[in-house]
């Protein structure tokens, strides 16, 4: 029997529709339109595509969107000044700095991201939002793991009491994913490159989230029959061929539910950015001092 395919397209459409409805309600009640500013520094072609897609999604659902293009030679100070400007602009409720930053300022990434007002931090990377997530307070949550959790919930996959194994411990995916699953009462194991007995650990999982960055690393023999497999990985193995961290072709015959790559988790990230922008606006409306 083959697994249920969890389609990113279906869920992304649903999550964007939810955001669109909320935007209409907020406009009616408060007369405010959510605004998102995306800063892109330099000429990275992949980043330009991502930023264009974010702008398009905003237009589709009624978010005011501003793309700020800064040259490759931008200094740390210039970028921080731009963030400060946006922190104080009332019509901008979400600020995102597209990563990666150019090499010359990449070492200052943490300092630069920490400059974003936590109420406008729609990527959820600011230590205040990280701390709130870990302590169970209302926070802006990183888009990709947040999308994975919402997809699990929308698919009625049982999380409470389930053994969830997250492979990867990055600040962007692995760690927030583990905390989100824990907040929903999963028993969570976090694995990384030093983990011993990875196969045995994976085999005992009811839910596997793979966020490794290694093509087809999770093979069918690592999956318990009927388990749910969420593949966050995006690996380009040929100019026009993307694969995930899971060997989908074989895993699909063992798992109970699985996300494909492409067409899975990747599509959820922008939808969750739209939701986060709405959440940011709502948090700011509730905390007028932060506007
Ligand atoms: P990172 O490189 O920051 O983290 C990778 C993690 O995988 C690390 O924690 C690393 O362990 C772990 N790892 C590496 N090798 C092994 C191994 N042999 N066994 C067990 N664990 C291992 O990547 P990201 O978290 O940023 O991204 C992960 C993947 O998700 C990438 O393919 C990326 O492209 C994709 N991605 C997709 C997004 C989307 O929108 N769908 C968004 C963000 C990322 P250690 O810490 O010990 O080094």
Could you walk me through the main structural features you see in this protein, from its secondary elements to its overall organization?
- Pathway: One-carbon metabolism; tetrahydrofolate interconversion.
- Homodimer.
- InterPro entries: Aminoacid_DH-like_N_sf, NAD(P)-bd_dom_sf, THF_DH/CycHdrlase, THF_DH/CycHdrlase_cat_dom, THF_DH/CycHdrlase_NAD-bd_dom.
- Residues 142-284 form the Tetrahydrofolate dehydrogenase/cyclohydrolase NAD(P)-binding domain.
- It catalyses: (6R)-5,10-methylene-5,6,7,8-tetrahydrofolate + NADP(+) = (6R)-5,10-methenyltetrahydrofolate + NADPH; (6R)-5,10-methenyltetrahydrofolate + H2O = (6R)-10-formyltetrahydrofolate + H(+).
- The protein is of the alpha/beta class.
- It has 2 domains: 30-117, Rossmann fold (3-Layer(aba) Sandwich); 143-267, Rossmann fold (3-Layer(aba) Sandwich), CATH 3.40.50.720.
- The chain is built from 11 helices and 11 strands.
- The protein has helices spanning 8-30, 45-61, 76-88, 103-106, 109-113, 127-134, 143-154, 174-183, 198-203, 248-251, 266-286, and strands at residues 4-5, 35-41, 64-70, 94-97, 163-167, 187-191, 207-210, 228-231, 235-238, 241-243, 257-258.
- The strands form 3 sheets. A 6-stranded parallel β-sheet has the order 1-11-8-7-5-6. A 3-stranded parallel β-sheet has the order 3-2-4, with helices on both faces. A two-stranded antiparallel ribbon has the order 9-10.
- Helix 2 (45-61) links the parallel strand 2 and strand 3 (64-70).
- Helix 7 runs parallel beside helix 8 and helix 7 (143-154) crosses helix 11.
- The longest helix has 23 residues, at 8-30.
- The radius of gyration is 19 Å and the shape is globular.
- The chain starts with a strand and ends in a 5-residue tail after the last helix.
- The mean pLDDT is 96.
- The structure holds NADPH dihydro-nicotinamide-adenine-dinucleotide phosphate.
- The site of NADPH dihydro-nicotinamide-adenine-dinucleotide phosphate has 25 residues, from helix 11.
């Amino acid at each position: 029997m083959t697994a249920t395919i969890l389609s990113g397209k279906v869920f992304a459409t649903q999550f964007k529709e939810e955001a669109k409805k909320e935007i209409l309600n907020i406009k009616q009640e408060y007369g405010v339109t959510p605004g998102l500013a995306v800063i892109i520094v330099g000429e990275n072609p992949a980043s330009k595509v991502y930023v264009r897609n974010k702008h398009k999604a905003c237009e589709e659902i009624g978010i005011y969107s501003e793309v700020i293009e800064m040259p490759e030679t931008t200094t740390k100070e210039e970028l921080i000044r731009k963030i400060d400007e946006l922190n104080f602009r009332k019509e901008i409720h979400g600020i995102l700095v597209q990563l990666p930053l150019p090499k010359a300022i990449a070492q200052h990434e943490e300092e630069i991201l920490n400059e974003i007002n936590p109420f406008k931090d729609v990527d959820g990377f600011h230590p205040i939002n990280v701390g709130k997530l870990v302590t169970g307070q209302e926070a802006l949550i990183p888009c990709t793991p947040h999308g994975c959790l919402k997809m699990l919930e929308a698919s009625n996959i049982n999380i409470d009491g389930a053994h969830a194994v997250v492979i990867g411990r990055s600040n962007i995916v692995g760690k927030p994913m583990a905390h989100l699953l824990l907040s929903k009462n999963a028993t969570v194991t976090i694995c990384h490159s030093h983990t011993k007995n990875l196969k045995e650990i994976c085999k005992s999982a009811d839910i596997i989230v793979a966020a490794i960055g290694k093509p087809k690393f999770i093979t069918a023999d690592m999956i318990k029959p009927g388990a749910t497999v969420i593949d966050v990985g995006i690996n380009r193995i040929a100019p026009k061929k993307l694969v995930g961290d899971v060997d989908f072709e074989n895993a699909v015959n063992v798992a109970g539910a699985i996300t494909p790559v492409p067409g899975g988790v990747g599509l959820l990230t922008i939808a969750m950015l739209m939701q986060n922008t709405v959440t940011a606006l709502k948090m700011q409306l509730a905390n007028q001092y932060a506007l």
